[in-house]
From TrEMBL:
The keyword Repeat applies. GO terms for molecular function: RNA binding. This is Pentatricopeptide repeat-containing protein. It comes from the Eukaryota. Keywords: Repeat. PROSITE patterns: PPR. One of its GO terms (biological process) is RNA modification. PPR repeats lie at residues 300-334, 401-435. Pfam families: E_motif, PPR, PPR_2. The lineage of its organism: Eukaryota, Viridiplantae, Streptophyta, Embryophyta, Tracheophyta.
DNA sequence: TTAGGGTTAG
């Protein structure tokens, strides 16, 4: 027997050649119970050093038996020392369900579900008399759920049925959770039907499963059941229901849940708090979102990032950046998500310098390698006008996913580099499957190049071949494409005869083209239609007033102004544009000064709009 | 098992 001394750190540097039995009946400790009691105590108090000392002692005295080793594994796991737990596990000549599950649960809870499954696979099944027990089965199922291992999950289900372990409620819940993550909800529903009564854990799993699969109606049914039958929800229920209210835009239910949380005094978990902040923000109610955030007792980097994201998504870019600074002042370090949101805010402001600074900041903190950050950088540089930097970020990224490809394709297209966009698209096809967004970029590039035939080929053949149904964004690109090629009547016909739920953006595309191509007849017709569609859209008035100004139609300009007054949309930023339109006419000599003064009475011109030379310089 | 992010037409 070779025993090396001294044992480093008091821990066994074992001794693979040890003929064993390494595990001997206890003697040196007054009883094995003593050592077990000590190990339990040190586990509770997370006293790693004393645990190690006992470990060393037991080994020196050849007293370490299976049960003590299991307690030690548990102690190491609880102290976050997975490598020590693993080392001990690997040298144990005998193991059982408890040893396996202690290590597996350790890996799973530390976020390593694959390793947990690996431990199971490495175990000799003869050590597990009768296979995994209910504890190990639960850990196995949870790990399968995490890595979407449906086949292995089904094997666990078989075992649960054969062994009768399926009668344990936590095994059933774990099965339900596994199916809801890995397979369609039908399998989950079958398990759900075997669960008697109204189990909140099972209901949570069903709810989250339906939410994840986008089946909001079914999710709502589950919530109705919960409202009627379950008096006490847990935090997970609240978070899930808030998620449903966010997705389904159910303002009533969302507000009810929020006030219920406040009324019941349910302690605001940081999870539920962030979900509430997110919910109001996704409804577009930034004020309530901000108020909810300010009222949070528990904040963490996630809630800060959530409120920043809400600001940025609703156009409050400066606010988002202010929050980014504030968050760091109170001591939270940004994550890759936080950087992505902050970069997005810079993109919204075209704030190249701030974006550059954030780039350096992210690089220093080691977050630049993250896909999310790379994509946000591409977007920021592209929207700030620096396509070269966007390209540089893209080529220096360690990995590309479909979103990063979509980002660079869109960036090229926005910069009028349509050929580069199409090149990138074909390059992408070697690695990734295109998505809905990919074709928005591709078709917009075709529109820039006036490639009408190619555009229709992508729309009618390519997209269908890869199973993507074109949506209104794609069809709007087609309208823009026809318009760009000067085919306005064709664009008009395309819109009238294609069965698409056209939105204001699409109609405005055509209207704008009418203005550019001076097709005033069609423009007037389209304009009337667009005004009916949304009489409060300031942008339409801008386009129309510009068009009438170009057509020297003073009556048209005045009429637009009248309509704006009737609709009381003078607060729209477009108001100054009608004045600009009038001024343009004055500059061009279409309207004399008398008419101009008349117009000033109608709409007093702000001084910055009065300077005709500015307009002339701008190339009007 | 619960919260936040990055790509979308004019």
């Amino acid at each position: 027997m070779t025993v090396r001394r001294p044992y480093a750190n008091g821990f066994a540097l074992l001794i693979h050649s040890m003929p064993s039995p390494l595990f001997q009946p206890a003697q040196a400790f007054a009883s094995r119970r003593n050592s077990v009691d000590l190990l339990k105590m040190f586990t509770e108090t997370r006293n790693l050093n004393l645990g190690k000392a006992i470990n060393a002692h037991l080994i020196r005295a050849f007293q370490l038996d299976l049960i003590q080793a299991n307690y030690l594994i548990n102690l190491y796991v609880k102290c976050g020392q997975l490598h020590l737990a693993r080392r001990l596990f690997d040298i144990m000549p005998e193991r059982n369900n408890v040893s396996g599950n202690a290590l597996m649960a350790g890996y799973f809870q530390a976020g390593f579900p694959l390793e947990a499954l690996g431990v199971f696979k490495s175990m000799d099944l003869s050590q597990l008399s009768g296979g995994p027990n209910e504890y190990m089965l639960t850990t196995l199922l949870a790990s399968c759920a995490e890595v979407r291992a449906l086949e292995e999950g089904r094997q666990c289900h078989d075992h649960a049925l054969k062994s009768g372990l399926v009668s344990h409620s936590y095994v059933r819940n774990a099965l339900l959770h596994m199916y809801s993550k890995c397979s369609g909800m039908e399998d989950a529903l079958q398990v759900f039907r075997t669960i008697p009564g109204f189990d909140i854990l099972a209901l949570n799993s069903m709810l989250n499963g339906f939410l994840e699969h986008g089946q909001l109606n079914y999710a709502m049914e589950v919530v109705s059941g919960m409202v009627k039958e379950v008096a006490r929800w847990d935090h997970i229920s609240y978070v899930a229901v808030l998620g449903l209210c966010t997705d389904s835009k159910d303002l009533n239910l969302g507000r009810q849940i929020h006030s219920q949380i406040l009324r019941r005094g349910v302690e605001f978990s940081v999870f539920a708090g962030s979900a509430i902040v997110d919910m109001y923000g996704k409804w577009g109610d930034v004020k309530s979102s901000r108020r909810a955030f300010d009222g949070l007792l528990n904040k963490n980097v996630v809630s800060w990032t959530a409120v920043m994201a809400i600001c940025a998504q609703n156009g409050c870019f400066e606010e988002a950046l202010k929050l980014f600074l504030e968050m760091q002042l109170v001591g939270f370090r940004p994550t890759e998500f936080t950087y992505a949101v902050a970069l997005n805010a810079c993109a919204g402001l075209s704030a190249l310098k701030n974006g550059d600074a954030l780039n350096a900041h992210a690089e220093k903190s080691g977050y630049k390698e993250h896909l999310t950050v790379g994509i946000a950088l591409i977007n920021m540089y592209s929207k700030s006008g620096s396509i070269d930097d966007a390209k540089r970020v893209f080529t220096s990224m360690p990995h590309h996913d479909i979103i990063s490809w979509n980002s660079i394709i869109t960036a090229y297209s926005h910069h009028g580099l349509a050929n580069e966009a199409l090149e990138a698209f074909h390059e992408m096809l070697k690695e990734e499957v295109p998505t809905y967004v990919t074709f928005v970029g591709v078709l917009s590039a075709c529109a820039h190049l006036g490639l009408v035939d190619e555009g229709f080929y992508y729309l009618n053949h390519f997209m269908r071949e890869v199973g993507i149904r074109p949506g209104v964004e794609h069809y709007t690109c087609m309208v823009a494409m026809l318009c760009r090629a000067g085919l306005l009547d064709e664009a008009d016909g395309f819109m009238r005869y294609t069965c698409v739920d056209w939105d204001i953006v699409a109609w405005r595309t055509l209207l704008s083209a009418c203005q550019v191509h001076r097709n005033y007849g069609l423009g007037q017709k389209v304009g009337e239609h667009v005004l009916k569609l949304d009489p409060d859209d300031g942008g339409t008035y801008i386009l129309l007033s510009n068009m009438y100004a170009k057509a020297n139609r003073w009556d048209g300009v005045v009429n637009i102004r009248k309509l704006m007054r009737e609709k009381d949309i003078k607060k729209e930023p477009g108001v100054s544009w009608i004045q600009t339109a009038i001024l343009k006419m004055v500059v061009c000599g279409c309207v004399d000064n008398h008419e101009k003064r008349k117009s000033e009475k109608l709409a007093p011109l702000p001084s910055y709009n009065l300077d005709a030379s500015v307009l002339l310089r701008s190339g009007f």
